[in-house]
Fold:
Amino acid sequence: MLSRARAGAPAPALPAPTRKVFVHTFGCQMNDADSERMAELLARHAWARTPHAEDADLILVNTCAIREKAEQKLLSALGRYREHKARRGTVIAVGGCVAQQEKERLLSRVPYLDFVFGPDNIARLPEMLERASRRERFAETGWMGSEEYLFPSADPEAARGRATAFVTAMKGCDNVCSFCIVPRTRGREVSRPFAEVVAECAALAGVGVREVTLIGQNVNSYAGGCAFPELLRRVAAVPGIARVRFTTSHPHDLSDALVEAFRDEPGVMPHFHLPVQSGSDPVLWRMRRDYTVEEYLERHARLLAARPGIAITTDFIVGFPGETEADFEASLALLARARFDNSFSFVFSPRPHTGAALRLGSSAEWVAVPREVAVERLERLQALQREVAGERMRAELGRTVEVLVEGPSGGEPGEVMGRTPENRVVHFSTAGRDVPAGAIVRVRIARAGGNSLRGDLAA
Ligand code: SAM
Ligand code: SF4
Structure:
C-alpha cells in the first residue's frame, strides 16, 4: 500500500526552546528513527532535547514489544522516572509497540503515567501534550488509513556532521510469522512514496551524510511507486550519497531483481541481513516463514554469486515450541554451512495473541521447550557464531579496505572508527591527519577481534 504523496515545505526557523524533553528508546532502528522524528517535531514547538531524565519537563519512552524482556525493562525504567514526576511534575508518556499493544491497560498498570500513544500517532504529539497539560489521561492508539498516513520527514539539520542516517522507506508488516507481534503493533504495510524517500536522502546528502540505510520491518516488499530494487538504484544515484544499505528483509521477498541490484549497483553495499530464524523445515513451517532451508540456502548462494565477498548476517530463534535437539542441531548445521558473518539470536518469547503463543502446549508439536534447555541451546549457537565470525574477521588481516569514517572511536585519543562496505567496524589512528566524519579512506587491517578490526591508514 502506498501512502499519499505530498508537497515538501521549507522548514520554518525553530523557536527558542523553553522546555526540555528526554527521549528513552528501546528496540530496533525503526524506533530510533521514530524517536528522532519525535524530538524534531517537539523542537518545532520549543522543546529542547536533554540527555538527562532528571532535568526533563517531559519524558518520552519509546518502547519495544518484540520480547517479554523488553516490556520488563520498560516497567523498571518507568519506576526510575516516577521520582522525577514526584519532584518536578515531569510529564511521562509511553509510545511505540508496548503502547500500541497495551493501550489503556498501561495507564491502569502505571498510575503515574500521563498518556500512551501508538506509532501512528507521533505527528499528534503537540496536541497530546496540550491535553496532558489539562491533566487528561488518555491512550491514542488508533491506526491511520494508508491513504491519510504521512511519513514524518527527517530534519536534515539534525544530521549535520554525521556520516550516516536512517531513512524510513515503509512501515508495518503484512506477514504472519507465528512468533511475531509486529503486525499487531505496527499495523499493515504502508510504503512511503519514492519521491519522498529520494528527496529526504538528497536533503541529508546536502548536510554531508554519505551513507543512508533504508528502513522498514519488511523493507524488500516496498511498493511506494516503484519496486525496492528500483528504489535502491534511485537512492544510489543521489549526488553525495556514496553508500546505500537497508534493513530488514524477509527471505521470500528476495527477488531476482534485488539480487541483480547487488550485482550491478556499486553504491548498494555488500551486506545483507537475511533473517533465517531456524535451520529446521518443520520449525520454519510452524513459524509460518514461507520458505524451506534449501530455498533459503539457494537465495543465499545467489547473493554470493552476484556479489562475491558479500557479508550475510541473520537472526535465529531457539527454543521455539516443539524444537527438538535434532531441529536445533539443524540450526547449528545451517550456521556452519552458511558461515554467517554474524547473527542475532534469541530465546523464543511467547507474545500475546500471536499464533505461536495461542498454540503453545496444545499438542506434542507445540510443546514448550524448558527455559534452561533453550538458554543452553542459545549459548551453543552463539559460541559457534563467535567461532565462525572470528575466522571471517581474521580473513581480513593484511587486506586494505575502504572505510567510511563515522567519528571518534571512543578509545585512544586521535583514533576514529568507521565501517567497511561489508559493515565491519574498523578502528584506526588518524596519525595526525584530518580525517573527519564522512571521509572515505583506505585502511590496512592489522588486527582482528571478535566484533571489530583495527588497522593503519594507508597512503
Ligand atoms: N522482519 C524481520 C524478519 O522477517 O525476519 C524481523 C524483524 S523482528 C523485529 C527482529 C527479530 O526479532 C526477528 O528476526 C526474530 O529473530 C526476533 N523475534 C521476533 N519475535 C520474537 C519472539 N517472539 N521471540 C524471540 N525472538 C523474536
Ligand atoms: Fe515479524 Fe518480520 Fe515476520 Fe513481519 S516478516 S511478522 S516483522 S518476523
Notes: The longest strand covers residues 400-408. The radius of gyration is 23 Å.
